[in-house]
Amino acid sequence: MSKSKLIAGNWKMNASLEGSAALVRGVLDGLAQAQPACDVAMCAPAPYLAALQGWLAGQSAVQPGAQDVSAHASGAYTGEVSADMLRDFGVRYCIVGHSERRQYHGETDELVAAKTQRALAAGITPIVCVGETLAERDGGHTEEVVRRQLAAVIHVNGHCITEVVVAYEPVWAIGTGKTATPELAQQVHAALRAQLRAASDHADRIRLLYGGSMNAANAASLLSQPDIDGGLIGGASLKAADFLAIVAAAR
Ligand code: PEP
């Protein structure tokens, strides 16, 4: 079954309000010249989501995204942002379980699964990140780690797993300039696909993104792999020209 690819930019905690406005303008101008053959999302820091909604109003080429969501519906959780709040600002995608959240904020597989569930309940498509550290790869544990991370999400979300986007992001490739080779990424994606097939009859429609130093030069070869259905882009999403080149490679 054919599905459109998804290219999602993860700005992380970068740029300013002014810089973000210019970035969005640059991307929208570029896409007005050449309509994307894929879905495109920009995942902004939470305080910029209201502005992002305004910048993206009246067009459909780029959808607004967030970088995290609370596992709780509402209540005394100072500093957290609920899925319903994200939806109030038009958010369509939300990154969940990014390795930086797992690494620096102690997010467990169970918490990531709960956040995924919250996003889905609010009608937001979660982009669930899985990936191994360098030590885990060197120890030969890559598939075991990503399968464990995905299993927690499948366990909690059941048949709704078909509404999820999964991003394979080897931790050693994020922001390092080291990219998994297309063959190596495809191998992990194939393992994830097999796991999803065991959980759902509709696993082939689930989009599996690759993330980790994807850029204008390597995007086409990664995106041509049979189980790579798009990219989650960090550094290269901060420059309109670079992001547009990756979008152009996704067909
Ligand atoms: C990311 O943060 O999800 C990511 C893939 O970053 P980068 O593209 O900079 O490696």
The ordered string of helix (H) and strand (E) elements is EHEHEHEHHEHHEHEHEH
Give the C-alpha Rg: 17 Å
Q: What is the CA-CA span between the terminal residues?
A: 15 Å
- The largest sheet has its strands arranged as 1-2-3-4-5-6-7-8
Beta fraction:
5-15%
Figure out the total of helices. 10
Major sheet size, sense and barrel closure: 8 strands, parallel, barrel
Question: What is the CATH level 1 assignment of the domain at 63-71 and 80-236?
Answer: Alpha Beta
Q: Low-confidence stretches at least 5 residues in length (pLDDT < 50)? A: none
Mean pLDDT: 97
**C-alpha geometry:** globular
Query: The CATH topology of the domain at 63-71 and 80-236, please?
Result: TIM Barrel
Ions, cofactors and other bound molecules: phosphoenolpyruvate
Named at the architecture level, the CATH assignment of the domain at 63-71 and 80-236 is: Alpha-Beta Barrel
How many beta-strand runs? 8
Summing up helix and strand content along with how strands pair, one would put the structural category as: alpha/beta
Give a short overview.
This protein has 251 residues and is α/β, with parallel strands linked by helices. The protein is built from 10 helices and 8 strands.
Main attributes?
globular; alpha/beta; 10 helices; binds phosphoenolpyruvate; 251 residues; 41% helix; TIM Barrel; 8-stranded parallel beta barrel; single chain
Fold and architecture overview:
With 251 residues, the chain is of the alpha/beta class. The protein has a domain at 63-71 and 80-236: Aldolase class I (TIM Barrel, Alpha-Beta Barrel). Helices cover 41% and strands 15% of the residues. The chain has 10 helices and 8 strands. It has helices spanning 17-33, 49-55, 83-88, 99-104, 109-121, 134-138, 142-157, 182-199, 219-223, 240-249, and strands at residues 6-10, 39-43, 62-66, 93-96, 125-130, 165-168, 208-211, 230-233. It has an 8-stranded parallel barrel with strand order 1-2-3-4-5-6-7-8, surrounded by 5 helices. α1 runs parallel beside α10, α5 crosses α7 (142-157) and α7 packs parallel to α8. The longest helix is centred in the last third of the chain and has 18 residues, at 182-199. It is globular and about 45 Å long. It starts with 5 loop residues before the first strand and ends with a helix. The structure holds phosphoenolpyruvate (PEP). Phosphoenolpyruvate binds next to β8.
